[in-house]
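Risk mitigation, structural track. In case the binding assays with flavin-adenine dinucleotide fail to produce interpretable data, a predicted complex structure has been prepared as a fallback.
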Amino acid sequence: MVTIAELREQVRGPVIEPGDDDYEEHRRVHNFMHDRRPAVVVRAAATADAVAAVNYARANALDLAVRGGGHSVPGFGTCDDGVALDLSLVNNVFVDPAKKTARAGGGATWGDFNHAAHAYGLATTGGIISTTGVSGLTLGGGIGYLTRGRGLSCDNLVGAEVVTADGRILTANEHENEDLFWALRGGGGNFGVVTALEFGLHNVDTIYGGPMFYEVEDAAAVMACYRDFIEDAPEQLGAFFAWQIAPPLPFIPEDRHGDLFCAMVTCWTGPLEDGEQAIKPLRDAAEVRAEYVGPMPYPALNSAFDDLVPRGLQHYWKADYVRELTDDAIAAHIEHGKRTPVVNSTMHLYPVNGAAHRVGPDETAFGHRDAKYAAVVAGMWPDPADNDANIKWVRDYYAAIHPHSGTEGGYINFMSEDDAARAPENFGRTYERLRQVKAAYDPQNLFHLNQNIEPAS
Ligand SMILES: Cc1cc2nc3c(=O)[nH]c(=O)nc-3n(C[C@H](O)[C@H](O)[C@H](O)COP(=O)(O)OP(=O)(O)OC[C@H]3O[C@@H](n4cnc5c(N)ncnc54)[C@H](O)[C@@H]3O)c2cc1C
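Fallback model:
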């Protein structure tokens, strides 16, 4: 047993309990569907604080929720009556331009990361939204604009510092604790608290790209064009398909604000002067009704859609990996995409190919290298009174597309709480080996508030 007074003595960052002024703010995570009340929130200031929080939770047999950017849709970054370990103060990013690496604290967001790396004209694969955590996103795989050219975020991870369930601080990389390093690249938050992550960086500075909006009536043509083009397109091109109700932005004609469109969002990282030509096949898929395309700093594109997903919405998502995007699948997308209920909700279809396919299927724990796309039906809306209708839209959409995807699993980072039973399919071919590594580093399953891997017996 460790007392809360002893915990406070061991921790430099704020230790927040029910009744404290800032408890309400820090007990919650990005998805306000989760209204949980931890017994204590430890806002770690350093690795030592994470060690203290892990030891406190273990010694007192309390649930332990580990929070990086807090964006988990199932709300894994908070819990009832347990310990919420919030790493958001550990968000420094140190760039080594000579080695082209960056070391990020376990609570850094992609906004923190890109801000630091862009000063040197460098970047690595991160997510689409800048407020998402580097840790949670990378540990589950990491899909973003640079996936085709530079692989998944986890493919760019070269090392990590991890606090394990027994309170040890380990280094994981190609030479030390290799099994742990393997598992961190796709196995999610199952193996310990990741207090620092080191990435390889690439020359990505000003990109050419942005969103193009087409009429819903052209969605089948746009999707088919995307499918036919993206597999063999130059790898400097990232692009994804989306449904989007037009927000009131100046680049969209005023009389179309609030109308549903389909969109292609592009990111060309090759020579700027080639950008227009690089995205032309997608531009020519149908008439573009509105666009915000041009040269822009990579972090600007990475934060362009942040306002569509502010903290405090209700989230319910479903995900699928897709082997082939068939015509029947496209028809199902159109039927349900047309009913996109609210400006924050969408379906994104991300390509998984190029550099992500050149990493061997067992080289990392990411178990779905044979997928060509990752689809996510992302329900996000402001009012809890609308929960039933919005959840139904997500479930119906998913039920319609899933039979066409050619595979069982979906991306663990896009899964909701009720997908826990699908862990073996969602982790895919690496699941059994992940269970062995889990047994070696966390046999008691202290880290169970995540897309959980059952330790091998
Ligand atoms: C608005 C939005 C946009 C998104 N866009 C993308 C995208 O473009 N690409 C993509 O791949 N995914 C995307 N995601 C999904 C995202 O990858 C997951 O939600 C991810 O879990 C978020 O990481 P986080 O650190 O913010 O979350 P948290 O809620 O803090 O953590 C989520 C999980 O990761 C574990 N974890 C987090 N930090 C640590 C740590 N330091 N050590 C150990 N375990 C940790 C937790 O245990 C938990 O299981 C998006 C999600 C949202 C809500």
